[in-house]
Amino acid sequence: MHAELPALLSRKRFGHVHSLFHNGINIAMGDELIFIGTMKNGRLPFGIHMGLDHVRKLRQSVSMHDIVVASMPDLLLFRHPRYPIALDLSRAAAFQYELQKGNYRSYRDLVHLDLMLHLCRHWSIPNGLHADLIAEQSQGDGKGESSEATEHVERLLAASWYGNEEQIEKHVRYFLGRGQGLTPSGDDLLMGVLAVHTLTEAFHPLLYEVIHRILAAEEITTDVSKAYLQHALHGRFSDKVVTVLNAMIAGESSHFQAALIRLLQTGHSSGMDTAFGIANAVMALRRYKHVRTSCDCIGR
Fold first, then answer.
1. Distance in angstroms (rounded) separating the CA atoms of residues 184 and 132
2. Whole-number Cα distances in Å, 30 to 18, 67, 68
3. What is the mean pLDDT of the chain?
4. CA–CA separation, 113 vs 121, rounded Å?
5. What backbone torsions phi and psi does residue 70 show, to the nearest 5 degrees?
6. How many Cα neighbours within 13 Å face the side chain of 128?
7. Alpha helices in the chain (DSSP H)
8. Which of 58, 80, 148, 201 has the most beta carbons within 10 angstroms of its beta carbon?
9. What is the pLDDT of residue 58?
10. What are the CA-CA distances from residue 281 to residues 77, 172, 189, 203 (Å)?
């Protein structure tokens, strides 16, 4: 289980079963969602993970809205009227994945971008926002008409670079909640952008502030996606996202390729959209690098 979960369960002791899936369940402890299930989509920043057999047993023993009590930080009680069950976490191995900020110095450290785009194009499926971005970038000559998604992601990244709050909010609102499923494609793309920003701190802090303000005040996306984004705002991502970005810095192409393929296999299009969020953010760093370099030279 995630290393920070015991602290959460000691603060928020009462909750309920929020949602049920084939590979696990979500429980809501106050305003926090905790996923209990397999590692099909990686190790999650709010996750408790176990084998498929145990997941099936848990899944068959609980129902929507069942009360959940954290009687201790390492013991969860599910109060189903017919099949009460306890989940003992005392022997669970703790995990926590962190972006290697200490190894990042400049945009030049983020390598393998061409390999990333190549793999994404060959892995593409005909839905998700990444489909428009692939079509745009595959033209190669820059003369084609930009798709709506491409226009918004480029303008979001430009506004985030220069700190234009009004424009950041406009384009963030375009992506939040856009698409189908538990984690809409637009949210997945924002997740990739936030991961790059967390590693590099290259964009303006207003990007965090705007997303946090909207999520706190509005029901603009799904509960599950909101939970992912809120963790992202605190620098917490799934191991699949963290491994890809750390591998971009490490420089070993085979390791990066294996990590990227694991990410691309996430969900139906979630991994693809997250990968394109990462790729577009890295391309933006390259696009605006001369501005930062010039300003540094003038300032010194």
1. 15
2. 11, 12, 11
3. 87
4. 12
5. -90, 90
6. 30
7. 5-11, 52-61, 113-123, 130-138, 148-162, 165-175, 185-200, 206-217, 223-233, 239-250, 253-264, 270-287, 289-299
8. 58
9. 92
10. 42, 14, 10, 9
